């Protein structure tokens, strides 16, 4: 078909306009950023990055109802929103749970890039030739690194992504040899036959990375990932043999979680270096392993990352919604740390909706003030209800309550509820036979607000308590940066106390104590 005169000119102008409209976002993804966040994130108003402050204010407010500890949103490499929900605060590491899988996957890709591993197709048992592996049939011998990365190893494993008890994970953590526990599992299906979530797969990857890089997954991560990205505040738990846990156990600050997301947003590039092969990131961005949820939207998996294909969202996901969300089409990285699972898809929709333009928006001082108010409000703890202390409070205060052996490992408890600064002291069983048990002590809030022991091992501990009735006292305890909330209900009966324990992971326990002579 021939096009003449003004019609041709109009079509040409229309085509040019459409091309120019698409350029700002593409350029943001393709060009070198003005500054990399290695030394820290540069901040910006949302409108300067084409985001809506009012929409982000609603996101911060709603996130508080979702039991978040923190939320961060970056766009075009700038931090545009950051909130911390009291008593959690900025500057503290947070457990990332299964985000660890995505980090171990990243290190596996780096080890392949470094020539330390051959490819995703390398057979896994080759790395464990020094072990006698049970049930080593042809199917098990055909498991590859790719199968571990994609959760398709076929090993028999019970760790569903629902509210059921993760039996195999619990057994792994009780084992004295995590690698052997995973390797010896029988096969439930052929490798590659289907998705089955398995933290053991990722632990084998960590063991392999450690073997091929000098004996420490953490040391390799510090060299190849953490140091180049400017991540210095890290904790990583280990298995009994000293290998960093591959499926969980990593602790990072939220701002550092966002850096890992930004590395993927930039397709493996960082400050002029290709730290991770672009093909590795593309494998994540084109994930094809169906996670089998049978729900809308569908989820896929690759290299330790979740994907929601219809939303073009790529997620490093940990239990209780520790999330690194990468959204290339709007040039956004969002991070959450949390204490309960919440629906991911609506959260992602809210983040995407806040990205209104690839170009700067007009300044909106009223909306920016609203966002600042929501962020300040998040950082202020809201007191829970309290009731007057009964006469019993004075009688139980200062007594040493001793407990028989129990699943929580508590040996004794002392409450001082009469002092100007109320406090507690708990002694736990020693980890080793004959070891001297060290007490955990700190202040306890009786006014509906947590009191924080900043000198506790590993992370601050926040504790508060209140009387439920004339005989029952409830203690709420949180280790700041953990996703667990623990609740102890103590019912006093003369020289005895009955304790009911529960946490937000569904664990319940009961134990009985008695006053020391």
What does this structure look like?
This protein has 517 residues and is α+β, with helices and mostly antiparallel strands. It folds into two domains: 47-377, DD-peptidase/beta-lactamase superfamily (Beta-lactamase); 392-515, Lipocalin (Beta Barrel). Helices cover 30% and strands 23% of the residues. The protein is built from 14 helices and 23 strands. It has a ten-stranded antiparallel sheet with strand order 17-16-15-14-23-22-21-20-19-18, with no helix packed on it. An eight-stranded antiparallel sheet has the order 2-1-13-12-11-10-9-8, with helices on both faces. Helix 8 (199-213) packs across helix 9 (217-229). The radius of gyration is 26 Å and the shape is globular. It starts with a helix and ends with a strand. Residues 1-28 have low confidence and may be disordered.
Highlighted features:
517 residues, alpha+beta, Beta-lactamase, Lipocalin, 2 domains, 10-stranded antiparallel sheet, 14 helices, 23 strands, 23% strand, globular
Here the CATH topology of the largest domain equals Beta-lactamase
Overall pLDDT? 92
Query: How many strands, which pairing sense, and closed or not: the largest β-sheet?
Result: 10 strands, antiparallel
Indicate the proportion of strand residues: 15-25%
Rg over C-alpha atoms, rounded to the nearest angstrom: 26 Å
- What's the total number of strands? 23
Total of DSSP H or I helical runs spanning 4+ residues: 14
CATH class descriptor of the largest domain? Alpha Beta
Question: What fraction, in percent, of the residue positions are helical?
Answer: 25-40%
Shape type? globular
Report how far apart the termini are.
101 Å
Structural class given helices, strands, pairing? alpha+beta
